[in-house]
TrEMBL record:
PANTHER family: STAGE 0 SPORULATION PROTEIN A HOMOLOG, TRANSCRIPTIONAL REGULATOR-RELATED. The modification 4-aspartylphosphate is found at residue 56. Pfam families: LytTR, Response_reg. Keywords: Activator, Cytoplasm, DNA-binding, Phosphoprotein, Two-component regulatory system. This is Stage 0 sporulation protein A homolog. Residues 142-219 form the HTH LytTR-type domain. GO terms for molecular function: DNA binding; phosphorelay response regulator activity.
Amino acid sequence: MRIAICEDEEFIQNSIEKNVEKCLEITGMAGKCECFVSAEELLEKGNMPYALYILDVEMKKLSGLELAEHIRTEDRNAVIIFMTNHSEMMQKAFDVQAFQYLVKPIDSDTAHNVIMRALRIIREKRNYIRFTNKLKDMIFYYDEVECIESRRRKIIVHTEKRDYEFYGSLSQIEEDIKGSMFVRVHNSYLVNLEKLREVERESVTLRSGLKVPITRTYK
């Protein structure tokens, strides 16, 4: 899991990073913090999304709220925590579905409790699959994906809106998401059972209208 901390004050940035690392250790979750001193630096990296964003609201050029608006255009599921000097600004946080906000000076115990709750929500409800395409990570939450197809050496992720191509192994993906609602119905397909519209003898139809074959082995 990747976590982004965007804060231009070094002391606060270091304090939050240590708090996150402690929370990850307590929960037993694997994660890595990446720190940024401005919204522009985070956006320039061009390697989003992260599972958790901890953002300073009052930054020099692009504010934390403006950054969050951009994040929401790319990822509606990420958990966002704001840090601010002015709690009255947080009414605007509802527009970007913020999880919580921390008022500066930040109390370490309060931050710890908020981060712990955020990590637990991510662990329990934010199941996702990560793929890499030309050095860019892309995250797909389970509820976005209809099915995953293997075609020669490529993996095609079918969503209701569009398809995405990557290189990879369908068997490895199946192992990575074991215990989820994805099941193998064909040597070349994993389907999300929550996206089924019709089940026939030799195929299933998904919500988008896509038909996927079923083979005897997996019937």
